[in-house]
Design goal:
About 55% of the residues lie in helices and about 20% in strands. With about 80 residues, it is an alpha+beta fold. Strand 1 and strand 2 (about 20-25) form a beta hairpin. Helix 1 (about 25-40) packs across helix 2 (about 45-55) and helix 1 (about 25-40) crosses helix 3 (about 60-75).
Length: about 80
Amino acid sequence: MPEAPQTVVKRSLRVAGHQTSVSLEQAFWDALKAVASARGVSLAALVAEIDAERGKANLSSALRVFALRRAQEGAQ
């Protein structure tokens, strides 16, 4: 049976000195928190790192792709 879609959770973060809001499904927030914890940095610091490297991509999309790639790396 397929999983039910997750609720989107909106969080406010300070990224590169600017307050911003990001909406992601809870599973993505959990994955990002796990990476941040493993690196010994805050969630905001990890988001700032991804933000600095995202180019023209939407921040929410960049965060989802980052989390997906980390999951794929762990599955190999």
